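[Discussion] Sanity-checking designs against the backbone

I'm trying to build intuition for which residues belong where. Below is a structure token string of 99 positions. I'd appreciate it if someone posts a full sequence so I can compare it with mine line by line.
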């Protein structure tokens, strides 16, 4: 039995790099659904394909996390789908430093 069998994960910033690796690894460990987050649906497509190949149901959600309204849309979508067991906050939002 895989360690995370039946769990659902949300990985922000999973369209590339570390986020993509984490999303695929969670699928390989048995997550049943992995929400793949990126700024555009196109950016998440290859991650979603890799997640599906690893055995999980990928759900693509495009949202700009620096926009509170889009964060709310993302959260509502995830909750409508039953919520998550695992949250991996990988997305980076640059901070503006005002001197």
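Best answer:
Here's mine. Compare freely.
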């Amino acid at each position: 039995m895989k360690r995370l069998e039946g769990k659902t994960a949300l990985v922000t910033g999973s369209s590339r790099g570390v986020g993509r690796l984490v999303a695929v690894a969670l699928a390989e460990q048995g997550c049943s659904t992995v929400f793949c987050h990126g700024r555009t649906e196109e950016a998440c497509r290859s991650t979603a394909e890799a997640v599906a190949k690893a055995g999980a149901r990928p759900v693509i959600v495009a949202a700009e996390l620096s926009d509170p309204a889009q964060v709310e849309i993302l959260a509502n979508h995830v909750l409508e789908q039953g919520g998550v067991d695992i949250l991996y906050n990988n997305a980076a939002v640059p901070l503006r430093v005002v001197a």
